[in-house]
Target: Transcription regulator
Amino acid sequence: MSPQEMKQLKLNRIYKALLSLLADHSLSDISVSVLCRNAGVSRTYYYRNYKSMQEIISRHQEMAIKSYLRILPHAAHMNFTQLMTAYFRLMKQQSTENVLLINAGLTDTLIRTFRTVYLFLVDQKIIDSSNTRSHHQYFPSFMAGAVISIQIQWIQEGMKETPAEMGKILNELFSFAAQK
Model:
């Protein structure tokens, strides 16, 4: 196994262990020792690789979103509706773990993660950021907060709309936000 594969395996294990613990405990009640024991990793590994448990969540979510987007057809360039459809498709697949994260009060972590992935996609030119509002320094934060807020409502209301419908809805909402 390559070092990169081993790194991903350990990240998956510690993330799954954290989710398992979050099902029955608040984040503040989870010790690093218990987390590491449940994940089968050393405390040294934890302290060498992470500053916080939230960082584990962010890194895993970023890896999952980026991996998912890479396997999509036309992933080299996606319009906003396609991007949001793909995102909501993945979030539907991960709805159980998202509910755990939301219930644990980790929405800020989800927002930061979405913002990081959005900036990565812009940097990689996977999504078009040529309009002026996209260049505003606060736009990535605005977008992340809005999308995660809508995602939370969608999950809490039972995900009645399909991911494709959510992609269209988000496109309409962001088009409205761009109007003057």
Notes: The chain has a mean pLDDT of 88. Residues 77 and 126 are 4 Å apart (CA to CA). The chain has two domains: 1-50, 57-177.
